[in-house]
Amino acid sequence: MISVVILGAGNVAHHLYKAFFSSENVKVTQWYNRNISSMRPYNNEVQLTDDISQLVEADIYIIAISDDAISDLSKQLPFENRLVVHTSGSVSGYDIDQKNRRGIFYPLQTFSQGADIDFSTVPICYEALMRKDYPILKELAQSISNNTKKINSDQRAVLHLAAVFVNNFTNQLYRVAHEITESQGAEFDLLKPLILETANKVQDLSPFKAQTGPAKRNDKKTIKRHLKMLDNEHHKDIYKLMTASIKKTHASTGSVTENKN
Fold first, then answer.
1. b/e map of 10-49 (b: 16 or more CB within 10 Å)?
2. Is 8 left (phi over 0), alpha (psi -120 to 50) or beta?
3. Distance CA 77, CA 130 (A)
4. I need a surface site. Which of 2, 69, 201, 250 has the fewest CB within 10 A?
5. What is the pLDDT of residues 115-143, one digit of tens each?
6. How far is C-alpha 160 from the chain's CA centre?
7. Who wins on pLDDT, 45 or 255?
8. Stated pTM of the model
């Protein structure tokens, strides 16, 4: 059984704790944070501490905190030559203090408070700066997920960048759509089946082939009508930018007949 200490109490830390707690191959021996108030519901399950000098020995220490705090926390760890990893998609493994062995345990998913996650479907990307640490990271990843991948830092950085597009930017577009529908008394909920179908479609088709809509068709009348409907200049700028991007992508395909949505 792999023993783990979690450092941090944000969304990623909470979701990881629940996943590890449900695994037969992992034991969370301790959970650290400077403020343990949000962890108190788990007080009967795991040892909690707000004293970094009292960290117990474990196979792996997982730093699950904000990116800009990883380096400082790793320097405060009161031990040497143990395996310390972080969960960031963009921070280098070299940001962890070199007094310990270093790696990355990156769950490629969005985590929100109160939203349940089936970790068996979450891609776990792992890296190690020392070759000997790969087997235990692989074993830890496979203990909670059916989708694990050994990657390098360049691949992780690209995945994190792409994740911002497919998750953060897409969610912002949902927010814009919510504002547009609310402003006219329409129901945003009526768009949810379309949101699901759009996401499901790219499971089988490339995003290029899945694209539909007025920009791909170069439907100038519809585009002009949409822009006229938008009172918010920020929304109008987003519409223009996205329309231009789709047009540029599909310019060589010409106008095609398709379902108008």
1. ebbbbbbbbbbeebeebebbbbbbeebeebeebeeebeeb
2. left
3. 19
4. 69
5. 788 899 999 999 999 999 999 999 999 99
6. 8
7. 45
8. 0.86
